Every structure is written in C-alpha cells, then in structure tokens.
Amino acid sequence: MRIEQALRDHGHRVIDAGSHDDDILLRVHDPELVRHLRTVWDRWVEAGLTADDRHDRVVPYLIPSAGMLDGLPEREPTAVHAAAGRWCYDTMTLVGPGTWTAARAAVDVTLTAVGAVLTGDHLAYALTRPPGHHVTRSAFGGSCYLNNAAIAAQALRESGHERVAVIDIDAHHGNGTQAIFYERDDIFYGSLHVDPGAGWFPHYAGFADEVGRDAGTGANLNVPLAPGSGDTLWLAALDRIIEGAAHHGATALVVSLGVDAAAADPESPLLITHEGYEESGRRLAGLGLPTVAVQEGGYHLDTVGELVALTLRGLSSCAPSSR
C-alpha cells in the first residue's frame, strides 16, 4: 500500500489487474514447478506437518546438490518435506497458505501491464509482491516464486517484438532471469548489482564473466559493484548496460525495478540516493522503448514508495502516457 499510495500522490493512474491464463507462464517455467507451487501447501497440511509449530510453513528438508546426486537421475521424493527441496534452492523462501495466490496474482498484474504497453501506453508499471527475478525455469528461491520480469519479456517477444531487453536495477543479481534467457539471443539481460563475490546473494551467479552461452553469447551483461558504491559508479554501470541493450537492437524494454540499492535499505550495502534513482529512470527512458517496469526488491518501508515513484518519474520523462 505504501508504493500504491506514493504513486497516487504522484498522479499515476492505477488500474485493476485482469485475469490471464497460464500459457505464457508455462512457456517460461517448468509446468512441474508450477504444479508444485500450486499444490505444495495443501500437501504439507495433509501430511500433518503443520501440527508442529516449527513447520508452520513449507521449508525444504533436503536440497539435492549436483555433488550429492553425482550423475544419478533426479527423482521427486514422495514425502512432501523432501520434495520441497526438488523445487526450492534455499531455506528462506517459505510457502504458506496464501503464497500461490499472491504469486499467481503478481503474474496477472504483470501481464496487465504488458497489455497496456501493447495497446498504446509507452510505460506501464506492475506493482508485484512477491518479486520474481531469482526464479529460474525450474527452481524458486530468493523470496521469489514466479519470474514476473521473464514472463513480461516472453509476452512482449510473443506479441511481435523480435528483440527485448531486460534491465535489472535491483541491488541483487537476477540469477533466475539470467538463467532463463542465458542461451537465447532474442532477449538481452543486463544487471547492475552488489558484487556476489563480496558475500551477497545470490552468491553463485552475477559475475562479470557470465556473458551468455551458445546462441545467447553476448546477450548477457553483468556489472557487479563493490559494497559502498554510490550514484557515480551506479550510473556509470547503468550506462554500460543501456549501451548493451541498444547494441542488441531491442524494440521493447522490461525493467526489473528493485529499489533496495538505496542507502537506507537494510538488504544491501549500496548507497544510491533518491536523485540517483530518478536519474536511473531518466537514462533508461533515453532508450525510447515501450517499457514495462516490474517491481522487485525494496525493504525500507519509509522510503520504498517515494523511491519507486521517483524512478517512474524518470522513466516517464520520454513517455506520452503511463499507468
């Protein structure tokens, strides 16, 4: 509500999300991951696990690593507390009674924003909670369940845009979005974020030498930033990514709009100011592309709404209309 109220205060129109089928969702994510998310809470309850206060949410009991399997085929265990680790790669992304409803509603919000852009708006923003950029095709984590930005990019691609750019300005690398498009040349992914090598999530991805694979070689650009980096380094990194998106020839843009790189945010060591966020939006707008902005992180409740509103004000600087 803080973000929505801030946007209303800044004069943005707010529209209700429409309902959408699962077609695009199932082309981005493994249908079995979607099935798991849809059903795992009910299976958890049916197994009697909620009787123990320590298990009032679904959390993996065992996460099978490549070293554990050592070449053996992956099989989904029949016990739900073990099966949870087949689809979730961390122990902080819990599933409760309302998780699927919220995650699936975020997809509807995202696709409504895509629809607005496809029908004439230059900029539309999807206020999504939970966020999504840490979800790969077949595994969720990082407090994310379905990858809204990837779904937006795929929807734009299937609606006639031959090349789409996803630019991720969340403080943390969007390992899920990168993984989904890593072998594709039609969707560019660029991210500026706190250096995972300095001890920050997602730890195993987000390094500068990750440039794509096979057909996707050159369509992935990571610019990690040292803890303590502020506006000057941030905006220089963003300029590199914008240049990469322009070189890629994108005709539409998805912005993974996290505001957790802000100086006051408790979830990252970056020091981006309010002015830095507005300028980030302004520079992204300079691409001149129809744009869908999708909410990712942002955890300082007193400032998150204003930071989003300022970023959108920057993004709107080249936009005839926005929602």
What does this structure look like?
By secondary structure, the protein is an alpha/beta fold. It has 2 domains: 248 residues, Arginase, Chain A (3-Layer(aba) Sandwich), CATH 3.40.800.20; 57 residues, no CATH class. The chain contains 11 helices and 6 strands. It has a 6-stranded parallel sheet, with helices on both faces. Helix 6 runs parallel beside helix 7. The mean pLDDT is 96.
SSE topology:
Layout: H1 2-9, H2 23-28, H3 31-46, H4 66-69, H5 80-87, H6 99-118, E1 123-126, H7 148-158, E2 164-168, H8 175-181, E3 187-194, E4 220-225, H9 231-248, E5 252-257, H10 274-285, E6 291-295, H11 304-315
Parallel strand pairs: 1-6, 2-3, 2-5, 3-4, 5-6
Helix pairs in contact: 1-11, 3-5, 6-7, 9-10, 10-11
Keywords:
single chain, 323 residues, alpha/beta, Arginase, Chain A, 2 domains, six-stranded parallel β-sheet, 6 strands, 38% helix, globular
Question: What is the gist of this entry?
Answer:
The chain has 323 residues and is of the alpha/beta class. The chain folds into 2 domains: 2-28 and 98-318, 3-Layer(aba) Sandwich (Arginase, Chain A), CATH 3.40.800; 31-87, no CATH class. The protein has helices spanning 2-9, 23-28, 31-46, 66-69, 80-87, 99-118, 148-158, 175-181, 231-248, 274-285, 304-315; strands at 123-126, 164-168, 187-194, 220-225, 252-257, 291-295.
